[in-house]
Design a protein that fits this description.
Blueprint: E1 2-10, E2 13-19, E3 24-29, H1 33-44, E4 48-51
Parallel strand pairs: 1-4
Antiparallel strand pairs: 1-2, 2-3
């Protein structure tokens, strides 16, 4: 499974977006990225995470 991620700067902090080829999978505020990785692993098993340009557009 390949997931794409991007960041969006907002007025209340950085929003991390994660998507597969079809849909948005996760929205995350904050800097507890290890916790997000655990949640994604629990949901998807093994996956590759790559930076996506323009995921927020």
């Amino acid at each position: 499974m390949e997931l794409s991620w991007d960041e969006l700067e907002t007025e209340i902090g950085t929003l991390l977006l994660v998507a597969d080829q079809l849909a948005l999978c996760a929205l995350y505020y904050g800097d507890e990225q290890p916790q997000l990785m655990k949640r994604l692993t629990r949901r998807y098993g093994q996956f590759q995470l790559r930076r996506a340009k323009n995921l927020t557009r």
